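Long-time lurker, finally posting.

We've been working with Radical SAM-linked protein (Aedoeadaptatus coxii) and I want a structural starting point before designing mutants. I don't trust myself to interpret raw outputs, so I'm hoping someone here can both generate the structure tokens and explain anything notable. Sequence follows.
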Amino acid sequence: MELRLAFKKMGMIKFISHLDTLRVFTRAIQRAEIPVLWSEGFNPHQKLSIAQPLSVGMESEFEVMDLEVEDDYPFGELKDALNRELPRGLEIMEVTPDFDKQSVFERIKKTEYRMFFPEEFYPDRKHLETIIDDAMKREEILVKRRKKKGRKRIIVDEDIKSGILSLNWKDEEEGYGLYATLRAGSEGNLRPDRLLAGLFESTDVDVDFIQIRRLRSWDGDDLEVQL
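Top reply, 14 upvotes:
Generated this for you. Predicted structure of Radical SAM-linked protein:
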């Protein structure tokens, strides 16, 4: 039986990598004694996958994981069973066997992120707005990217401006939120850390204290991606 799970990743656990997140789920599934199916071959592994890898240091309110279990497993028990074994910050929100079998990553076309600027480190919002406005007026917003050329890896400039769909500020407690909708998915993907690099490169703004959270995604028909 194929199941699709929605989960969130919040707090300090945002500092573990995508591969470590998979390992956490693998061990939690084993401890919860969930009868998951395994792949065949020389190196068998649990049949689970996460749709969009999350960068280290980034939170998310909605992540999607696909999991295959034995057909007679009462999937209604999975949410509570798994949440009892997961560490703080990882939480299963929903489980369903009834979902569009198309890959979530193939469906996603754009994603919204919240980038929080703590007022303690960024006291002048007007200064931030001016920098971003000036960047958006440029014909190109260039970011360095490593690219493979033959056997070598070279550094090239990549224009990310077409990947920026909208930017909106919101006053929040103890700081400001910059809400960015960016192109995502298999046809083009702009990560929020690369957005920040492009907007604030060669400025006096240190991006290390900006807190990033993935909020939601949409498909090609502008419908919010849900389970």
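Before you design anything, note these points.
The chain has five helices and ten strands.
The CA atoms of residues 8 and 62 lie 5 Å apart.
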